[in-house]
Amino acid sequence: MNNILEMRDIVKKYPGVLALDHVSIDLKAGDVHCLVGENGAGKSTLMKILSGAVRKDSGEIFIDSKKTEYNSPSESQALGINIIYQDFKLVPELSAASNIFLGRELKENFFLNMKEMNIKAAEIISQLGEDIDVTLPVNRLSTAERQMIEIAKAIIGNVKILAMDEPTAPLTSKEINNLFNVIKKLKENGVGIIYISHRLEEIFETGNHVTVLRDGKVVHSADMKDVNKDGLIKFMVGRELANEYPVNNAVKGKEILKLDKLSSDKINDVSFSLHHGEVLGLAGLVGAGRSELVRAVFGADKINSGKIYIDNKEVKINSPKEAIDAGIALLTEDRNLLGLFMNLSIRENISISSLGKLRRGVFINRETETFETKLQFDKLRIKAPSVETSVESLSGGNRQKVVLARWLETNADIFIFDEPTAGIDVGVKFEIYNLINALAEQGKGIIVISSELPELIGISDRIIVMCEGRITGILQRSEVSQEKILNLATKFSSKVKNAG
Amino acid sequence: MQGEIRRAKLVEIISEFSIGLALVAEIILFSQFSQYFFTAENLLNISLQASITAIIAAGMTFVILTAGIDLSVGSLVAFAGILATSVIKIDLPVYLGLSLGILTALLFGVFSGYIAGIFVTRFKITPFIVTLALMTIWRGASFVYTEGRPIWDLPETFSYLGGGRIIGVPVPTVIMIIVFIVSHIVLTKTRFGRYVYAVGGNLEAARLAGIKTNKILISVYIISGVLSALSGILLASRINSGQPNAGLMYELDVIAAVVVGGTSLFGGRGTIIGTFLGAMLIAVLRNGLNLMNVGSYVQQVIVGSVILLAVLLDQLRKG
User: Fold this and answer.
1) Three-state SS for B72?
2) How far apart are CA A216 and CA B203, in angstroms?
3) A39 DSSP assignment
4) pTM to 2 decimals?
5) Residue B211 — pLDDT band, cuts 50, 70, 90?
6) Which of A186, A206, A424, B213 holds its CA 20 to 30 A away from the CA of B179?
7) What share of chain B has pLDDT > 90, as a percent?
8) What is the pLDDT of residue A500?
């Protein structure tokens, strides 16, 4: 069969970085071509060039063997190219149906035919195996539901080539299965799919062909049946990774943090304790209240009742500032929305929570600031020309490292990581696991939230499972299994569907 | 790699000063048309004319950096001038009266800024609406308080502030330079300044990074209020009266100076040096057009066009 898409020798330079260095990929109708590589390898840039959102410096694109030039997403859409981006491109105030039909609204004479759009949107959503009220504004939907809307939007029009950048990151396993069924149907209809994911299991499940990018170059391209997971990882990171999860040798000490019947609007009667040197995992479905729990501890959400003790002393925490002063650090879930300042440099992003100790009189001591942030920059091996680089130009993994560096710089005693490895490649994941272990060995108390159960099981000493804002079980490392966690996470099963 | 970084840096520096280059070009151009233009006397005159709005623009830069806006500045100029002059008119020893008058006006600036800040933070009302309301309130208050009549017959010493000179340099110019130096240092060298950029770049991330964001937001409106009041005092001194219609439409000139200076209305990006150059660009243009005997109606068209052109160039280089 002929290639419906060929990208030939694509080159893209950014100041100080060669993002794509003569990259070529092919896509056949009805195939799933997977793109893998570490953060910053160039996958997202390649997708942006495919969509026309970013201009290539050189190289050619052939569609149905015809050389094609276009310079905007609307032109590429007209050619049947649809992209589902990692960060949502939905209009939060508009209804799900309006978003799905955005730019290709159905009309009756001069007026929008909302009725027809609602019906068609509901149809496509049910094809996706979902049950979402399409008349609700998008900002009232969960992250997983928004992802489904994004997918519906991409497949409703004229679609010949569909690229998905980390489509499953916010989805639960049931929703991922639904997505794979949709992909199967699209393949049967002759749609060519480019699939980007850090979850290698998914790639083996759904892909026909895989291309590995590293530092802007294609390092390997093969049929799925000719490669295995370890081989892929080796190509991605350029070296072999010994263990997926490094061993944690930290000694557990005294209690560092205790919650006593903590309640907020989203969590109910939560009590547990955390010890020096312990890594405590928080498991649960999306919407179970894990992020809300750590936000309450961090003073980001209001606490209605209950007490917090640090080193056996009761503390009152009413704002993130007070939490930081009490020695708590929170690496938030969405680094772009809740963590980073795109207008500031790496240095300024790292030092922002530690300026109190980087002062000389009323002024910021610039030398100390540069010195300290440079130390973190080197220690975490952030890939950027210098600490003065704007964080806007960094890839996802390096952005995450910048936020990590900020909290390391505060010298907190309790570190809370909310989905620290979401959308991050295996190489950086491994570095983050090592970092968590190193903190534990220094006697810090650590709480980790992760939706990837193997990861959570791999790094935690104990796992707390939540459902509907309550703790439904605490599992020791020796007794933990995915089944046990899932059972506890769906304890109030009547309402599970909403929680997903 | 190293070379590329250096080149990127160079591009950054040039674009940083593109407004400065435009200003230089403007000065060269006007020098060709008028002998008088490039004389010390005229340049000091320009700085004096620019000083009132430029001082307010320094405060506005803080507000706009947090992604806010302060429309109340023009009305503040009027009411602060009226407060200052009416206190000064009370029969007190001259210097006590002056100090009290100035203090009252400045405290009023603090008060108005604090009110704006509270509405923006505590009640979550958009800055545009809050300051639009305050603009109307203070303008109305100015007319109510004075019954529409200017406050005259002020002591001789009061006019020194707006009309006096320090080693040949007009006092408002000196005050403007001090305001800009202090603002620049605060924004670039202090923790508060860094927090202003952080709040404007990402409010929620700033809160989660441990910044007391409400305190920062209230502070920037207070800074804007105080500097507007200061300008109001200087203007009242210059015209030697408190006028209820003083500072009319100043908010637009001030916002134009800030935006022409490269500060983003979306917050987080901009410099105080840019604002200074923006204010000067507009002041030089007005002065040059006056010297060339361009009528005031035509001037408005030209100034507006230059503002459009300046922000267009800024957009293109970011493009």
Assistant:
1) coil
2) 34
3) T
4) 0.80
5) very high
6) B213
7) 83
8) 34
SS3 assignment, position B65: helix
Strands (E), A276-384: 279-283, 303-310, 313-315, 328-331, 359-360, 363-364
Residues of chain A below pLDDT 70: 1, 15-16, 87, 239-243, 493-500
Q: Which has more pLDDT, B180 or B153? A: B180
Strand (E) or helix (H) holding B215: helix B213-238
Amino acid at A227: V
Q: Collapse the DSSP code of A353 into the 3-class scheme (helix H, G, I; strand E, B; otherwise coil) and give the result.
A: coil
Measured between alpha carbons, how far is A138 from A153 in angstroms, rounded to an integer?
13
CB-based contact A368:A386 (threshold 8 Å) = no
Tokens representing B84? 């200052």
In this predicted structure, what is the pLDDT of residue B13?
Answer: 61
Question: How far is Cα A262 from Cα B265, in angstroms, rounded to an integer?
Answer: 41
Q: State the DSSP string of A330-371.
A: EE-S-IIIII--TTSBHHHHHHTT-GGGGEETTEE-HHHHHH
Which residue of chain A has the CA closest to B9? A15
User: Whole-angstrom Cα distance, residue A66 to residue A62?
Assistant: 5
CA distances from A163 to A12, B104, B195 (A): 19, 64, 39
Q: What pLDDT sits at residue A242?
A: 57
- Alpha helix segments (H runs only) across B122-202: 127-146, 159-163, 171-189, 191-201
pLDDT score for A240:
58
Return the residue in B7, B191, B263 with the most chain A beta carbons within 10 A, the one to mutate for interface testing.
B191
**Residues near A66 by beta carbon (within 8 Å), at least 6 away in sequence:** none
State whether residue B194 sits within 8 Å of chain A by CB: yes
- Residue B214: closest C-alpha in chain A: A319
Residue B101 pLDDT more than 90? yes
Q: How far is A2 from chain B (nearest CA, A)?
A: 38
Q: How far apart are CA B116 and CA B107, in angstroms?
A: 14
Burial of B34 (0-12, 13-18, 19+ CB in 10 A): middle
DSSP string, B249-297: THHHHHHHHHHHTT--TTSS---HHHHHHHHHHHHHHHHHHHHTT--HH
Q: Name which of B189, B197, B212 is nearest A343 (Cβ-Cβ).
A: B197
DSSP at A479: G
| CA–CA gap between residue A393 and residue A381 (Å, rounded) | 16
Q: Compute the distance between CA of residue B237 and CA of residue B230 in angstroms, rounded to an integer.
A: 11
Helix/strand/coil for B92: coil
Q: Which of B4, B202, B267 sits opposite A340 (nearest CB)?
A: B202
Taking alpha carbons only, the member of A185, A128, A121 closest to residue A159 is A185
Residues sharing a CB contact under 8 Å with residue B7, sequence separation 6 or more, in sequence order:
A15
* B191 in contact with chain A, both atoms CB, cutoff 8 A: yes
pLDDT for A66-118, tens place per residue?
999 998 888 888 899 988 887 677 888 899 999 888 878 888 888 888 898 99
Per residue in B233-251, pLDDT (tens digit) is 999 999 999 999 999 999 9
B28-80 tens-digit pLDDT: 999 998 899 999 999 999 999 999 999 999 999 999 999 999 999 999 999 99
Mean pLDDT of chain B: 92
Interface confidence, given as ipTM, is: 0.89
Residue B317 has a pLDDT of 65
Q: Which of B224, B232, B244 is nearest to B84 (CA)?
A: B232
